[in-house]
From TrEMBL, chain A:
InterPro entries: Aph-1
Protein name: Gamma-secretase subunit APH-1
Keyword flag Transmembrane helix: yes
Gene: APH1A
Membrane-spanning parts: 6-25, 32-56, 71-90, 117-135, 155-178, 217-240
This protein's GO CC annotations: gamma-secretase complex
GO BP: Notch signaling pathway; protein processing
Function: Potential subunit of the gamma-secretase complex, an endoprotease complex that catalyzes the intramembrane cleavage of integral proteins such as Notch receptors.
Assembly: Component of the gamma-secretase complex.
Protein localization: Membrane
Automatic annotation (TrEMBL), chain B:
Gene: PSEN1
InterPro entries cross-referenced by the UniProt entry: Pept_A22A_PS1 (IPR002031), Peptidase_A22A (IPR001108), Preselin/SPP (IPR006639), Presenilin_C (IPR042524)
Record's subcellular location: Cell membrane; Cell projection, Axon; Cytoplasmic granule; Endoplasmic reticulum membrane
Taxonomic path: Eukaryota, Metazoa, Chordata, Craniata, Vertebrata
Protein name: Presenilin
Broadest EC class assigned to this enzyme: hydrolase
Length: 256, 468
């Protein structure tokens, strides 16, 4: 594999996330800390879910292929549920942090709002999830080899990069939706996020039939994006004005 | 020849590195910095890495003068900024170490062990290996403890020359010898042909500028860059020469030692900090990374011209600032004030001379300097030993883990979160704290967990191309 594959896959997978980081997160130290803490929470959830999977695998027969695959599927589902549980825990922690920041501020309002924290937390989860999926693959693209020489798909790296990108975006939108649901006690929003996550992970079970996993994931991402945009105060009118570069008019500002 | 010298790495640089990782705010004057130099104790190669660092507590007395609430607000308001001011250098150091480990094979090749870890780990049984690594770690830690105590004794009995000389020899070794070896290995890796004359010029310039920046004055960024580079070099030496189990054990034990030495009332580092506070002295800048420049005392002490100007300016501030510019071309002895100006001044406010007593009085007023200082300039300090051990952990993770990049990334995030928590505690307790325990604990837990539990899971997921 060549350097072109390496750079191409890196930028497909992490380019948009890097752009989000540089333009919205890198300037504010508080947001960077929330990002890293979000990554940490995702990591802990992964640790616990792989512990469970590991115990299950060690307790079972390693030669039984369908059983191992079944255990892996169980591991994936359990990991998804645990990730969402940790997202909820992170929401609780950030709520407490906001109270602390309000108490310490001079003018009684927090320097960062819960919506901004939701966005940054989502990006944190997404970046860590993407990094763990993609980094070892990227390291392998720098070495020698031929993709799919034993009859597997030749698009392995490319589809992995696209899947990683969509997952990072999805985590960002899920963060916004989830926190909004927790803030306003709308449990159906929270369940929708969990169901979407399970659906996306479930769709990857039909890999290497990529049309079955990438297409639904991108459709779900578009849905989640529109929903998160609407929840953050955006509207069709705002979007129209933005596209036409209009500045005037008493339009409500979308939450940053 | 290189083998010999490599095996017998002098104690000095190691000791230097073992400075306690001191973490403390620089709200107060410069007086409160204190460095721990453990290295100068012996010439042998013990690597006492006492990361615990004597973090000098900032002069708490001065803090009390301010409004406590306002102080708390300021500390926590700027807390996020300080965290990032430490995240960046720690990240840079780790990036340098990981990049070197991944590209230069010299630092992962086994070329013997240091004399501080005499027991080999190439044994037949697991039990023997465990025993050997425990013995190695015990020897290393006892060397570090002895060094630390020796340092405290030296400091208590005011043997400043010895400590100073020790530090200078350590930094000389690091800046010249280790960087020469590093440069040589990098050239070998990339197959770059280079002549000795160019190398001599490069190393000479690098080393001399480094000595000046670290031990004297220099641009802040350059000083920070040099401190990061010497921490990375030291960490690379440890990664190369410490066998695996020994390295993990040493990391674990040293964070416990750090905790004990900085927090226990009879701990050597704490005694060092308290002695420094009693004497109202600053620590040497060569062993602590600072995020801001502490220039007030340095300038006044080392430059008599500036000292005179500073004291004159502060005393006569209101008088005739405009006149000073007129006399800029006057002789240097005047300090810019010509005879005419002095006569005018004498006529107006009477003869006032700047005496050593008045200068000392002005210098001793810390609050004046504090108010002129922008609160955003207050920084936080981290001992170089902390940098070294964080980088050793991440470097070892990238060198020997089966999970490779996943493990490295997990350890990196764990260390950053540990540092964040330590800084939060620092903001709450406002005294010198050990920076190693929380980060190293998280780092070790995440290393072993990711390497043994997460990696098989991620491997299986990648094999089937499942995504979680």
């Amino acid at each position: 594999m060549t350097l072109a594959v390496f750079f191409g896959c890196t930028f497909i997978a992490f380019g948009p996330a890097l752009g989000l980081f540089v333009f919205t997160i890198a300037r504010d130290p508080l947001r960077i800390i929330i990002l890293i803490a979000g990554a940490f929470f995702w990591l802990v959830s992964l640790l616990l879910s792989s512990l469970i999977w590991f115990i299950a695998v060690k307790a079972s027969d390693p030669r039984d292929e369908p059983l191992q695959k079944g255990l892996l599927i169980f591991g994936v589902m359990f990991s998804v549920l645990l990730q969402e549980a940790f997202r909820f825990l992170y929401y609780k922690l950030l709520r407490k942090a906001i109270e602390g920041l309000v108490a310490l501020s001079e003018d009684g309002c927090s320097p960062i709002s819960i919506q901004q924290m939701a966005y940054v937390a989502g990006v944190g989860f997404g970046l860590m999830s993407g990094a763990f999926s993609m980094i070892n693959l990227l390291a392998d693209t720098l070495g020698p080899g031929t993709v799919g020489i034993h009859g597997d798909s030749q698009l392995y790296f490319l589809t992995s990069a696209f899947m990683t990108m969509v997952l990072i975006f999805l985590h960002t939108f899920w963060g916004i939706l989830f926190f909004h649901g927790c803030e306003h006690r709308r449990w159906w929003e929270i369940t929708a996020v969990v169901v979407m996550h399970l659906a996306v992970s479930g769709s990857t079970f039909c890999n290497p039939l990529y049309v079955g996993s990438l297409v639904p994931s991108y459709l779900l991402m578009a849905t989640a994006a529109a929903w998160a945009y609407l929840l953050s105060g955006g509207s069709a009118q705002n979007l129209w004005r933005f596209l036409l570069c209009l500045r005037s008019g008493p339009s409500p500002q979308p939450g940053s | 020849m290189s083998e010999e010298s490599e095996e017998s790495v002098p104690l000095l640089p190691l000791q230097q590195e073992s400075l306690a990782s001191a973490l403390f705010n620089t709200d107060q004057n410069d007086n409160s910095e204190r460095r721990r130099h453990d290295n100068s104790e012996r010439r042998r190669n013990d690597n006492p890495e006492s990361e615990t660092n004597g973090q000098p507590q900032n002069n708490i007395q001065q803090v009390v003068e301010q409004d406590e609430e306002e102080d708390e607000e300021l500390t926590l308001k700027y807390g996020a900024k300080h965290v990032i001011m430490l995240f960046v250098p720690v990240t840079l150091c780790m990036v340098v170490v990981v990049a070197t480990i991944k590209s230069v094979s010299f630092y992962t090749r086994k070329d013997g062990q240091l004399i501080y870890t005499p027991f080999t780990e190439e044994t037949e049984t697991v039990g023997q290996r465990a025993l050997n690594s425990i013995l190695n770690a015990a020897i290393m830690i006892s060397v570090i403890i002895v060094m630390t105590i020796l340092l405290v004794v030296l400091y208590k009995y005011r043997c400043y020359k010895v400590i100073h000389g020790w530090l200078i020899i350590s930094s000389l070794l690091l800046l010249f010898f280790f960087s020469f070896i590093y440069l040589g290995e990098v050239f070998k890796t990339y197959n770059v042909a280079m002549d000795y004359i160019t190398v001599a010029l490069m190393i000479w310039n690098f080393g001399v500028v480094g000595m000046i920046c670290i031990h004297w004055k220099g641009p802040l960024r350059l000083q920070q860059a040099y401190l990061i580079m010497i921490s990375a070099l030291m960490a690379l030496v440890f990664i190369k020469y410490l066998p695996e189990w020994t390295a993990w054990l040493i990391l674990a034990v040293i964070s416990v030692y750090d905790l004990v030495a900085v927090l226990c009332p009879k701990g050597p580092l704490r005694m060092l900090v308290e002695t420094a506070q009693e004497r109202n002295e600053t620590l040497f800048p060569a062993l602590i990374y600072s995020s801001t420049m502490i220039w007030l005392v340095n300038m006044a002490e080392e430059d008599p011209e500036a000292q005179r100007k500073a004291s004159k300016n502060s005393t006569y501030d209101k008088q005739a600032p405009a006149n000073q510019t007129q006399n800029e071309d006057a002789e240097a002895d005047d300090g810019g004030f010509s005879q005419e100006w002095q006569q005018q001044r004498d006529n107006r406010i009477g003869p006032i001379e700047s005496t050593p007593e008045s200068r000392a009085a002005v210098q001793a007023l810390p609050s004046n300097s504090q108010t002129s200082e922008d609160p955003e300039e207050r920084g936080v300090k981290l001992g170089l030993g902390d940098f070294i051990f964080y980088s050793v952990l991440v470097g070892k993770a990238s060198a020997t883990a089966s999970g490779d990049w996943n493990t490295t990334l997990a350890c990196f995030v764990a260390i950053l979160i540990g540092l964040c928590l330590t800084l939060l505690l620092l903001a709450i307790f406002k005294k010198a704290l050990p920076a190693l325990p929380i980060s190293i604990t998280f780092g070790l837990v995440f290393y072993f967990a990711t390497d043994n539990l997460v990696q098989p899971f991620m491997d299986q997921l990648a094999f089937h191309q499942f995504y979680i």
